[in-house]
Amino acid sequence: MSEKHIQKGLEVLKQHETKYHELAGKMLRTDGGKLFALDLMFVAAIHRAIMVSRGFREMIEGVNLTCAFPLVRIQIDTMLRPRLSDSAVD
Predict the structure, then answer these.
(1) Is this prediction's pTM over 0.90?
(2) Which of 13, 63, 68, 69, by CA, is between 20 and 30 Å from 76?
(3) Is 63 helix (H, G, I), strand (E, B) or coil?
């Protein structure tokens, strides 16, 4: 993969981080700004996704693949948590 492709991919990740911020803001303003436990869980997941994405970008830019690759698994875990909590039995 060329350096150009890698830089384009990193830019896409950065754009997604911005979209995550926007999503969190919209979510927190919904229903007059009332917060529920589920809102806090989703905001935490969005924050974690942003931080993991930033860390991944920094590791790729530093060519530290040993650290970058496990962050992919952490990101998948972050995205699955809200879905799995939805199917949990009370």
Answers:
(1) no
(2) 63
(3) coil
Supply 25's token pair. Answer: 């803001």
Q: What is the pLDDT of residues 27-40, one digit of tens each?
A: 888 888 888 888 88
Q: Which domain covers residue 25, as residue numbers? A: 3-86
Determine which of 4-13, 30-39, 42-51, 81-90 has the lowest per-residue pLDDT on average: 81-90
How many domains, the chain?
Answer: 1
Tokens of 2: 């060329």
User: CA of 72: how far to CAs of 7, 35, 49, 51, 68, in Å?
Assistant: 17, 30, 10, 12, 7
How many residues in the chain?
Answer: 90
